[in-house]
Amino acid sequence: MKLANRTILVTGGTSGIGLAFAKKFLEMGNTVIVTSRSKQNIDQAIKENPNLIGIAADVSQVKSVDQLVHQIKQQYSKLDVLFNSAGIMRYYDLFAEEVTGGQLTAEIETNLNGTIYVTKAFLPLLAKQEEAMIVNVSSVLANISVASSPIYSATKAGIHMYTDALREQIRAKNERIHVMELCPPLISETNLEDKMSHDKSTKFIDLPLGRLVDAGIKGMEKNKIRLNPGFSKIMRFMSKIAPDFVTHQWGKTMMKRMNNEN
């Protein structure tokens, strides 16, 4: 798919992976709309990138998503690419008494439900185009769970399964919509991981944000169905040959780090 003169919506597009892709899409000559639930974050992103278009929307709320769809239909003639990158990541000790049910489900509401709500809402608009694309950002943790982020791991595995099913439904209906899953590894330049620090032990699994964007753009242009850049490719392979061993070893390491930092 050619990524020029397109209208592109990036959810969670005011920081991290979403903002990095939004800026690249702008450089390539596209109309780029970013969303965030924070008006302050939108204003800051537009101040630093004046050609971005910002709309406040909470992807975890159906009513807010419906308002987003209405606004885009009213103001723009088309939507070619939906880039679902809105997400939050938390570290939880499931034995901690202070952790509430509401805290545990926040990632489900934003990461998984938000992806489902936004995709469903924009499918009719995307289907009107001669060629369109949906990119769902999952994670290396769609392949291997990590004990320190149990809910996040579950949401990314859910996004992986949902994306596969979505692709097959679109194929069955002969719609001209490409569907790609992007599985980033650890990206220390983002603010997604709001608690865990990064040290020499994570250096070999880290991927510079710029390299992720370059790989993602190439994958979109080639209509890839799934992209596992950097360490994600290794973990995808390991998940097939020794999933229990890798989950256990990685889980021990991450739980030790989390306990040391608490």
Q: What's the number of structural domains?
A: 1
- The unreliable regions are 193-202
- Structural class, from secondary structure content? alpha/beta
Radius of gyration: 18 Å
Look at the structure and give the mean pLDDT.
89
Write down how many β-strands occur, each being a DSSP E stretch of 2 or more residues: 7
Strand content: 5-15%
State the name of the first-level CATH class: Alpha Beta
Q: Report strand order across the widest sheet.
A: 3-2-1-4-5-6-7
Biggest sheet layout: 7 strands, parallel
CATH superfamily: NAD(P)-binding Rossmann-like Domain
What is the second-level CATH architecture?
A: 3-Layer(aba) Sandwich
What fraction, in percent, of the residue positions are helical? Answer: 40-55%
CATH fold naming = Rossmann fold
Protein name: glucose 1-dehydrogenase [NAD(P)(+)]
InterPro entries: NAD(P)-bd_dom_sf (IPR036291), Sc_DH/Rdtase_CS (IPR020904), SDR_fam (IPR002347)
EC number: 1.1.1.47
Family: Belongs to the short-chain dehydrogenases/reductases (SDR) family.
